[in-house]
Amino acid sequence: MIQRSAIICCVLLSLFYLSWRICFTLNTDQIVASVIFLVVDILTCFSAILFVVSLWRKRVPSTPFKASNQFTVDVFVPTCNEACEMLETTMQYCIDMDYPHTTWLLDDGNRQEMKSLAERLGAGYIARERNIGAKAGNLNNAMQYTQGALIAVFDADFRPEKEFLTRLVDYFAEDSIAVVQTPQTYYNTDSFQHRRLSEKEIYTDQDTFMHLVLPARNNWNAAYWIGTNALLRRKAIESIGGFPTDCVTEDVLTSMFLHGKGWKSIYIDEPLAYGLAPVGISEYYIQRLRWAKGAFQIMSSHNPLFQKGLTFMQRIFYFSSVSHFFEGGFKIVYYLFPAFFFLFGLVPVYPYKPVIIGMLLYVGITRLILELITGRRINLLLDDIYSVIKSFIYLAAFPVLVSNQNIRFKVTPKSGKESIMWQGVVGPAIIFGFNLAAIVLIIFNPYIVASLGVLGWICFGWCFSMGIIAFTACYFCFEPFIKKTK
Predict the structure, then answer these.
(1) Minimal CA–CA distance to 379: which of 203, 160, 154, 125?
(2) What is the pLDDT of residue 356?
(3) Using CB atoms within 10 A as the burial measure, which of 20, 42, 81, 82 is most buried?
(4) For the chain, which ranges sit under pLDDT 50?
(5) What's CA 258's distance to the chain center, in Å?
(6) Sequence-separated (6 or more) residues with CB below 8 Å from residue 199
(7) 3-state DSSP call for residue 25?
């Protein structure tokens, strides 16, 4: 009852805030900057509304029926250029699962050592000479040579638990189930996306998605396959013509097509396989850029709002998923506005004290409401730090909205030996640099803040906090290098 009341309050407050922003806060003297800032506010508010609305339905644990017959299962491990040692470990974990199955190594690298590995482990081996369609094409090719009623897919670095198949197969006793998905969980908790909060608590920037977003969407039959750690029904995949190859995030697009055909998905928020998270900023950049490009491909070529067969809520949630990356890139406006205010005199809202106070109150109140709604299961500060890191990554994917031709599927490096890519660091560095410049300016000329009154102090506080957040983001990017030099 308390959670639903908080959700209603959040939605009403956001709608009221947007109405007020549109009608009373535009600065007509700087209309271009004012409209840009308003658009970002609208995107952010609607994203928050969709997030809390998805939590409206109470989480009901999915309980499978006992399957009357045993399913035939094929386990696919697609690979392109991953190390043999890693694949040997993954393959052994897959082979050791306790439900009868056949494990297949799908080698897009067409490497002799992979063939020898499969033969030595007693697994099947499938290679192809023309690597068309990246991972999706690899999976489609393997379907031609296998017959299992169910297909488990694991990325080359994921290690399934022994009971993975036993735990999931019974869900397919219901004929309408196409996908049963489990979370992506990682064994290298010292990776770039992990932060140790205490002895027992570790933050990862996928926590909100894995443990709040997907479980919530599961209640609306809108949870989707995330590429690995899942079990899929062959018949369902065949009903949509195989895994779609025109998108580098084939998992989301596959799920959308399945839901459009009336199939159901189930998300089990239980770690049943453990993989390798991006070790440093280089691997993180490559992975997140691919995700953003895939989302923009879907938005431009298969817009969920117009996808046939989806329910209203499925359309909304799929659109929310792909537009999240668009919103993430636009958040740069929030990160640079306070610095631009002091450095260039940019004022994208009506410079009236009640307007500034009203905006500040909205931000503070909605954050408190989100804490209440989510049961404090999100870490807003660390989310902000990683949001700064991701903002320029998402911005780099924007050209895909105009042209999505010839986007190469780039596998996330698993070696951890990649150098620090400047593309991954330049965003946080720019944000930190501008905010630092503004802070230095104010230190040497404090009259600037004093002369502006409440507006000046709020913008200075915003600028100072953004400087700290951006500095921390830069530190996260260079942390492995810093540790090596000690």
Answers:
(1) 203
(2) 85
(3) 82
(4) none
(5) 20
(6) none
(7) coil
How far is 68 from 169, CA to CA, in rounded Å?
11
User: Which pair of tokens denotes residue 94?
Assistant: 């897959």
pLDDT of residue 129: 81
Q: Which residues pair with 152 in a beta bridge?
A: 75, 231
Query: d(Cα 471, Cα 318) in Å, to the nearest integer?
Result: 33
Q: How confident is the model at residue 261, as a pLDDT? A: 97
pLDDT at 125: 96
Task: Give phi and psi for 51, each to the nearest 5.
Answer: -65, -50
Residue range 113-126, pLDDT digits in tens:
999 999 999 999 99
What's residue 450's pLDDT? 82
For the chain, how far is it from start to end, CA to CA, in angstroms?
Answer: 53
> CB under 8 Å to 31, separation ≥6 — which residues?
none
Residues of 212-233 as b/e, b for ≥16 C-beta within 10 angstroms?
bbbbbbbbbbbbbbbbbbbbbb
Q: Classify strands 102-107 and 124-127 as parallel, antiparallel or unpaired.
A: parallel
- 3-state SS track over 368-423: HHHHHHCCCCCCHHHHHHHHHHHHHHHHHCHHHHCCCCCCCCCCCCCCCCCCCCHH
Compute the radius of gyration of the chain from its Cα atoms. Answer: 24
Are the CB atoms for 164 and 93 separated by under 8 Å?
A: no
pLDDT at position 411: 65
Write the class of the CATH domain 73-277: alpha beta
Q: Which of 219, 291, 212, 305 is nearest to 256 (CA)?
A: 305
CB of 59 within 8 A of CB of 215? yes
Instruction: Provide the CA 197 distance to its chain's centre, in angstroms.
Output: 21
The two three-digit tokens of residue 313, written as one number: 């809520």
Q: Count CA within 13 A, CB hemisphere, residue 92.
A: 8
- Contact present, 46 and 319 (Cβ < 8 Å): no
| 175 and 184 Cβ atoms separated by less than 8 Å | no
Domain ranges of the chain: 2-56+324-485, 73-277
| pLDDT tens-place string over residues 125-143 | 999 888 888 899 999 999 9
